[in-house]
Amino acid sequence: MSVEKKLFGMMPTCENVYIYTLKNSNGMEVEISTYGAAVVSALVPDKTGEFQDVILGYDDLEGYLKGDKYFGAIIGRFANRIQYGKFTLNGVEYNLAQNNGQNHLHGGIKGFDKAVWDSKIRKDIDNSVELCYFSPDGEEGYPGNLYVKVTYVLTEDNALEIHYKANTDKDTIINLTNHAYFNLSGHSSGDILKQKLMINADKFTVNDKNSIPTGEIREVEGTPMDFRTLTPIGQNINSDYEQIVFGNGYDHNWVLNTNNSAQLKAAQAVDENTGIVMDVYTTTPGIQFYSANFLAGSDIGKNNTVYNSRDAFCLETQYFPNSINCSKFESPILRAGEEYNHKTIYKFSTIV
Ligand code: BGC
Predict the structure, then answer these.
(1) Annotated catalytic, 338?
(2) Which of 70, 255, 306, 327 could bridge to 203 as Cys pair (CB 3.0-4.6 Å)?
(3) CATH number of 2-350: 3.40.50.10900, 3.90.950.20, 2.70.98.10, 3.90.1170.40?
(4) Is 316 known to be catalytic?
(5) What is the pLDDT of residues 185-211, one digit of tens each?
(6) How many angstroms is it from 242 CA to the middle of ligand 1?
(7) Confidence tier at 177 by pLDDT (50, 70, 90)
């Protein structure tokens, strides 16, 4: 087990950006950058014992500074969309940036993915790094000073745990996630259409054509959204089901059956080629399965790899998109003095 810290690069403001490498005794390695608190790589053993980097990303900081796909980053203050960038809290209307058509996406123009986080190695948790970010009152239009702490832990059973904590001095909203793009055949192996996915959800939130939930919660049964058993991602991805047409593929929030418990499996992805299996556990009520529909060939990543549409999948654990404007959805409000406390685990193994 070891944790190493190296310089990753320098911001235009001359601020240093570091990269931490967490390594466990099985040889699994995860790199975390202090820019965006992003997962840059995860070397995971496959069924033959070789290591595959299952995370899409860039070779250097410049790539991350130019990139606009949120590769591996922590998203905040609010993952996914808020309709018209507007919400009302305690009788006050707040207006956020409309950075996705008329809507607000992933925390705005300069979300947490574009911040340089403070970092330290935690002595009390083996193989971990803690990243902190202070988001001042009014940043990107959100109320309240917000203190955010994200801790990544690489365990001895090949799990990458992400612990999210935050508190505020004024009521606010918060929805933190990680935007890793996974490809269990390796980041440069092409599309993920044959990789299989299970999502432990009987229902999903229906979107309008701008990917804003309409408020309807629909059963997955009989639809291409049914991933209750392991299903190849590509099986129905080009279906003419309206939700798939709206999303250009999968880009939806599933209503997890897990009751906000990280004891129960929220999702599983399996790649028969490498034999790599990834299990997801989380304390959040929802998960966004995004089939990387907007990777466009113009995204040049590690080792000059051209990333095309559907060369990865994201499983972003979250409160439901636009939940602040939909009273039927679990509330993403964090009250002054309360603690936001969530955990997501991506656990790797191989097919037995
Ligand atoms: C969203 C997509 C968006 C993507 C950006 C996902 O979380 O659901 O609609 O295009 O992030 O990379």
Answers:
(1) no
(2) 255
(3) 2.70.98.10
(4) yes
(5) 999 999 999 999 999 999 999 999 999
(6) 18
(7) very high
